[in-house]
């Protein structure tokens, strides 16, 4: 049974940077955003169900999902958004569980932006939160996505609060500082997680 570290954090917190540092330690990364794309790839049951509901106009010319058109459709239709969530969330969760079972590294990292909001930390052994102050989140996201501070504050308001994430965390990485400090935090946690995974693997199973 894989030892699973959940990784989450608010927008602009640096989850991807942290995940890449763990990947550099040859740790398997399971990213919910990537899984969400995989369950609607051409030929998938997810995409077939969407086409049956919305018609082939929801596809691009290459047969893949037109994501921008789907976003427009669910933005103005709450019932459609609810239907889509009920369709895809179980598929995403099942695929993440399959990927966890297939992990080869001593422990694996499950990266889920809305981990706390959707209570997906139940799939993990420990929850690691990347924590930054709100002004840093806004500045980084503005620089990355070229959007207004108002838009970012609206996204922040829709996510779990910083306090809610920290209350759920077993471990915290502070990402307000420089890259060297971040690497040191990841290196320390990597050693801790290796030790914890060894303990789990040495525990007699019923």
UniProtKB/TrEMBL annotation:
Q: What is its EC number?
A: 2.7.1.24
Location(s), subcellular = Cytoplasm
Task: Give the originating organism.
Answer: Photobacterium gaetbulicola Gung47
Which pathway does the protein contribute to? Cofactor biosynthesis; coenzyme A biosynthesis; CoA from (R)-pantothenate: step 5/5
Q: Where does ATP bind?
A: 12-17
Name the UniProt record assigns to this protein: Dephospho-CoA kinase
Q: Which PROSITE patterns has this protein been placed in?
A: DPCK
In the record, what lineage is assigned to the organism producing the protein? Bacteria, Pseudomonadati, Pseudomonadota, Gammaproteobacteria, Vibrionales
What gene, per UniProt, encodes this protein?
Answer: coaE
- Keyword Coiled coil in annotation: no
């Amino acid at each position: 049974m894989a030892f699973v570290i959940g990784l989450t954090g608010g927008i602009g917190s640096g989850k991807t940077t942290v995940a890449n540092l763990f990947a550099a330690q040859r740790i398997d990364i399971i990213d919910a955003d990537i899984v969400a794309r995989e369950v609607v790839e051409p030929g998938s049951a997810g995409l077939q169900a969407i086409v049956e509901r919305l018609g082939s106009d929801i596809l691009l010319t290459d047969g893949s999902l037109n994501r921008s058109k789907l976003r427009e459709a669910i933005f103005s239709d709450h019932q459609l958004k609810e239907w889509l969530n009920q369709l895809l969330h179980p598929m995403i969760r099942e695929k993440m569980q399959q990927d966890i079972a297939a992990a080869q590294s001593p422990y694996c990292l499950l990266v889920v932006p809305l981990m706390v909001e959707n209570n997906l930390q139940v799939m993990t052994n420990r929850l690691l939160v990347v924590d930054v102050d709100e002004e840093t989140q806004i500045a980084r996201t503005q620089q990355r996505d070229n959007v207004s501070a108002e838009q970012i504050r609206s996204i922040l308001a829709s996510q779990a609060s910083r306090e809610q994430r920290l209350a759920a965390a077993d471990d915290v990485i502070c990402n307000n500082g420089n890259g060297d400090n971040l690497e040191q935090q990841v290196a320390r946690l990597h050693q801790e997680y290796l030790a914890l995974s060894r303990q789990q693997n040495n525990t007699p199973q019923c």
